[in-house]
Amino acid sequence: MLHGAIPFVDVWDRKPLGLFIIYAFFHLFAPYQLWAYQLGALLSVCLTAIVVMKMARCVASATGALFAALLYVAWLDLAGGQGGQSPVFYNLLVGCAMLNIVRLIRAETLTQAEIIKRGSMAMLLFGLSLQIKYTTVFEGCFAGLFLGYILKRHRISWPDTGRDLTLFATIALLPTVVVGGTYWLCGYGSQWWFANIISIFYRTKEPPAILAHNFRNIALLIGPLLLNIVLQMFLCRNRTAVQRKCAFFFNAWSVCAVIGVFLIGEWFNHYAIPAFLPLSIASATLFTSSVGRVWLMVLLAAGTVAGQVMVLENQKRYGNARTFHNIMDVISKEKGCLFIYNGSAIFYDFLPPCRLTDHPFPGHFHSVVENRATGMDPATEIRKVLRQNPTYIMAYAPPAADENEAVRAILYDRIRQAYTEAYRERQGKGFLVLYRLDAPAGREQP
């Protein structure tokens, strides 16, 4: 983007424009973009934790609210949140949106104008969050319905309620409509529509074994926090009317977020991160019980330790700074374009831009789930890439369970003809491998 590429046109991915903009901003700090995005993510997590404390204060003491915030932070590491996943950023917007609704719940007296004001602010924040990840639509719909409940509880007429809810929905959709409309006016409407709305429905399912494994992992991540809602019914009986109202809202929000996680499918660990926000807030209620306090302390300690173990495990499985520098050292010996068939796309960030393809993300090639779901035929596209003779190719051996075998066969046929292994490192159950083009003559670099 910083070199003039247009998302969905020159660089294709299924992410909304807002996420492109966030990471383009971090790249302004090159060559320190990694520090920039980590500091940006850290700031977002800290601010989100403060929002968690503000909401949790409705149902617990200041100490209980602090435990809820720490629980949210600890659980991020369990789901890979330390890598700057998109929920780390949009959870802040979602939290601020829900904080507006919590203030409506806590208010002793409310006017229709105040509900419209707070509701509009909440839905605008949800609209902005949609431009970071569309999956916030589940929580946005819940927020809209709950605002309708608040309107009716304060005896607002059905026609006025319908008008206000229409206003809320319009505000929530406004950022997406503006982005889509801008693309349409620039002549790229069909590209935006396919990438943002249609392409997700062309994806196929992961193999059953992978789905079962992912489902088990995500259930283990969410289960302990979801259990806290059940424990409330037995341990937290002496609550004020406001505490009960807020607890009901947090519990309902949690259930909605969890349902959204499971409806999305595939169930990668980081898909659970949006649910951690309401679940951690709802957990604060347990701090009003002595047994609940002990349980939360144990849960926080276990989550913190397990999270750090997970971070170390991820470094072994996916590489660390040593891996990065080793590969960059190899590439620096002979300048040229890198094509990442399978591996971390982070290496692209530290090399001069090479437009081998408008689909730079590895999963669009190697994953059978994405076959014909990204607007290109991966077999045809990889032949086009290989005709340009990239100096380096990064791949993973052996093939993954969800590998697109036809595309891999094309790639390795070319590797056997013209490439030599330049670097290999064990990662998890396999190896990350870097191949270098043999003959310097006749290379055609873009």
TrEMBL record:
It comes from the Bacteria. Keywords: Membrane, Transmembrane, Transmembrane helix. The chain crosses the membrane at residues 20-51, 58-76, 125-151, 171-194, 215-235, 247-264, 294-312. This is Glycosyltransferase RgtA/B/C/D-like domain-containing protein. It comes from Komagataeibacter nataicola.
